Amino acid sequence: MALAQVKQDALTARLQGLSAPAKGWTAAARASASDRLAAQGLPTRRDEYWRYSDPAQLTKPEVSGAATDLAPSFAALDAVKLVFTDGVFDASASDDPALAGVELLSLAGQADIHWAQGLYGQLETRGSSPVERPLAALNTAYATEGVLIRVTGQAAKPVSLIYTQKSASSDVILHHVVKLEEGAEITLLESGTPGARFNTVLEVDVASNARFHHIRTQGPDADRRGVTHIFAHIADNALFKSFTLTAGGRLTRNEAILEITGDDSVAHVAGTVLGDGKDFLQDDTIFITHASERCESRQVFRKVLKNGATGVFQGKILVKQGAQKTDGYQMSQSLLLDEDAQFLAKPELEIYADDVKCSHGSTSGAIDETALFYLQSRGVPKRTAQALLVLAFLAGTLEEIEDEAIAAEVHARLEDWLHGLDG
Amino acid sequence: MLEIKNLHVKLEEEDKVILKGVDLKIGPGEVHAIMGPNGSGKSTLSYVLAGRDGYEVTDGSATLDDEELLEMEPEERAAAGLFLAFQYPVEIPGVGNMTFLRTAVNAQRKARGEEELSAGDFLKVVREKAKTLKIDADMLKRPVNVGFSGGEKKRNEILQMAMLEPKMCILDETDSGLDVDAMKLVAEGVNALRSAGRSFLVITHYQRLLDHIKPDVVHIMSNGRIIKTGGPDLALEVENNGYADLLDGVQ
Q1: Using one digit for the tens of pLDDT, what is the confidence trace for A328-364?
Q2: In this structure, are residues A21 and A31 in contact, taking their beta carbons and an 8 Å threshold?
Q3: Which residues pair with A275 in a beta bridge?
């Protein structure tokens, strides 16, 4: 059977279980996404950016998994907490969605959200070229819930999206939109597992002088199957920083597609990953476009893999013509704790400006035996010494989190989860 | 204290014999020095005693207070009271020096069935000991040995020794890479730890370190064996005449 037909058949099967796209203010965006999806079909292993991760878990019609019961990651932090259970907003478990300088609305609401009209599905559309991202188009077309956040000032505290999964067969599609007006600043937290299978899209529009911080934890549930996309548009003198801690899961594909169109801006994407077991596959696929001058981008990923776990990094920096003085950097590193674990890295640089600084690096290695012996010679038991060295390696990326209290919280989770990995 | 009998060691990966029957006995409170030319097996001896991988003991024994060291894991040897000050202290990015020290101290206390030190008590002790070694707060906060100068690394070794309070200390070329002032500081740190219940094995190429850390006994090692043992004068003899005369005398 021709490949195109395979993709179409997979799509037809997948869509059968989904309810028709909603009407209302998102109707046009959804219709356009449906058209794109129909033209593209669902991804297969033969697609350029799905060579390392088999999308079958994300595209097959049926879902089965185990319900999870995860301790929330940011419980101790003062934040506006919004809870989604199996993809449905749970008002009774959530805080009052009121925060000075911030508008918090639900995608499921009926009212026309004028400011979101120009964003919903729009950043996703822009980010789906030149590389097609059918799962994101599927999300735009069929998302049932999500949060719409408009930030006009300095948010006094973070907004924390907490996902809980109770059903073993929930198939969750969430679509969030964040719009930061000029000079605004907010921190968005995400934690937990949205569903037995999930597909989330986060569209972020960062205006001039605005600052967006995103910190996310995924895990440590063993059965997780999910794909996430972040699409960001970044104007001048702005800042965008996203950090993700992932532990466990069968297939977790985190894509970030950032487009910097204003001068003097900063965009960082970072992640720390703990993978254990043959069934573990985690994939970071990043695409950062520099279309303006004097901007800085960073892609910093560290993964610890054991017992046959697989880690993937596909990172691209595209520097467009005229994006002079671009400073782009990507570094993906892995620590392989045994011979069965594998790390697959595909760094790409595509540069059309002549005065730029771009670099990439990737390392894979075992634990440093010399350091291990040094610690043991001081009386530290081998297992403790290994754990200390693994933590030290992973904690390197936590520097990407600016807020100290949040960084400490993530560090504590990392230590807990490492401990679990050890046991 | 430390008793080594007929120790034979070869490299695991190549069939190369490094130690060919080392005998050595160090009593409580004694300071012994081992001198010898490059490649004589001095550093191998220290690594084998500390338990580093890559060596195979083909014969002989090494006991610390009658306990067989060679069968223990490195951390067990440390808990039993053995300490090796490394010739090249290892840099460990991401692990704070203070965390490292506290983890080590408490791991040893735990292994010996003693109560762990609280954060407050630990801090008090470490600050006091660091001060005498001129180790500032910044060095304690930084990752272990990362960006430390040669002198700072060696002082950090002595600080670890002071915190862990071992009974048998092996100093592997602690003078290498140090200027005169740094060497004096390190030697003072070592001397401050000398006591009736603590012994030292000082491995060095040169006599100059022994001007500052005065040994009771000096051994000359060559080609995997101890070929001569004497008093502190033996070190002076080496300084004046080199190893050649001694080696000729043996062969």
Answers
A1: 999 999 999 999 999 999 999 999 999 999 999 999 9
A2: yes
A3: A305
**Residues A376-412, buried b or exposed e (16+ Cβ, 10 A)?**
bbbbbbeebbbbbbbbbbbbbbbebbeeeebbebbbe
Q: What are phi and psi of A194, to 5 degrees?
A: -65, -30
Domain segments of chain A: what residues?
3-367
Determine the length of chain A: 423
Q: H helices within B72-179, ranges in order?
A: 74-80, 97-111, 119-132, 137-141, 150-164
List chain B residues with CB under 8 Å of A392. Answer: 92-95, 143
Q: For residue B108, what is the nearest residue in chain A, using CA coordinates?
A: A379
Beta-carbon contacts of residue A295 (< 8 Å; ≥ 6 apart): A260, A262, A263, A264, A265, A266, A267, A323, A326, A327
Domain count, chain B: 1
Alpha helices in B51-96 (DSSP H): 74-80
Cβ separation of B100 and A377 shorter than 8 Å?
no
- Residue A40 structure tokens: 């593209």
Match 């490094």 to its residue by tokens: B18
User: Model confidence over A207-216: pLDDT tens digits?
Assistant: 999 999 999 9
CATH code for position B29: 3.40.50.300
Contact call for A379 and B108, based on CB within 8 A: yes
Domain extent at residue B33: 2-250
A183 contacts A156 by C-beta, under 8 angstroms: no
| Contact (CB<8Å) A395/B94 | yes
Element spanning B94, H or E: strand B92-96
- Residues A144 and A108: beta-carbon distance below 8 Å: yes
Answer whether B179's CB lies under 8 Å from B169's CB. Answer: no
Render pLDDT for A237-288 as a digit per residue (tens, 0 to 9): 999 999 999 999 999 999 999 999 999 999 999 999 999 999 999 999 999 9
Q: Give the model's confidence band at A292: pLDDT under 50 very low, under 70 low, under 90 confident, else very high.
A: very high
Residues B41, B224: contact at Cβ < 8 Å? yes
* pLDDT tens readout for residues B69-83: 999 999 999 999 999
Cβ-defined contact of B75 to A389 (cutoff 8 Å): no
